Request: fold
Amino acid sequence: MNSNHHLDLLRAAHFAARKHCDQRRKGEEASPYINHPIAVAETLARVGQIDDLPVLQAALLHDTVEDTDTTESELIEHFGEEVASLVLEVTDNKSLEKYERKQHQVDHAPFLTPRAKALKMADKINNISDIMRAPPAGWDVQRRAEYLDWAERVVSGCRDANAHLARAFDEALAEARSNIVDLNNYSNSRP
Ligand code: ZN
Reply:
């Protein structure tokens, strides 16, 4: 990356940090929200071996439209059409009910552009590891298992975009599932 690219990447990180500044993740650690988009961008670069500035910027910005007051035109103004359209590709349609929204992600995944598919996979890899490490309050083992099944269905439509990320997703999923089996065995073994 040349130095302009570094600046553009840092601008995206700074913008996202400001937009998410008073938000926390749902997990029991309630970590600062910005940790998540930074982890997704890092996964794309390290695991996915992606050196594509608009994708890395979109990863940093991927939840700004869904979860903050950020608008499409604001993203276009600051980061251009390409980044804005990648963010919108991975933004849930909030006019849908929660169940429909989740089904829509599954149905829509095969039609995403390859860059948005890679972003989606990196997002799910990080969500799975967050949920297993620090599940949101009230998420029992069953709820976590359902999340894993849903994430697997979404990612099955995205796998063709990046073999490294697809493999890393499989590993995260297998580890999470074996964890859940252990948790179930533990609770079943108790009187
Ligand atoms: Zn996300």
